[in-house]
Amino acid sequence: MPNLYFCQPHAQNQGMLRAVISLEDCRHLVAPDSATYLGDQFPKVCDMPGRSADFAVVGISPDEADAEWRPGYYRFEADLTKLNAQLLTLAR
Q1: What's the N-to-C CA distance of the chain in angstroms?
Q2: Which of 54, 53, 77, 69 has its CA nearest to residue 21?
Q3: pTM of the entire predicted model
C-alpha cells in the first residue's frame, strides 16, 4: 500500500509518515500527472534550498506499481491541513 508522508521544510521536518493508503485512495488524493516523480530515493528536504513550502510525498512499492504509478517516490504540492481533512474522510 502506498505510504503518504507530510514534509515541512520550515520546521526541519524530513518527512513524517502520515498514512498508509490504498492505491485507489492514493488516486483520489492526487492525480499521477500532478505529482513529480523523484526516483527511488526519499527526498532530502534539507537539500532543497529556497523551498520552504509544505508538501507531501507518496511512496509506491514495486509490488503496487501500475501503468499510472511506477515504483518510487512522488512529490506533490498540498495544503497539509486540507490533505489531512481528506484523509479523515477516507477513514470513515
Answers
A1: 18
A2: 69
A3: 0.86
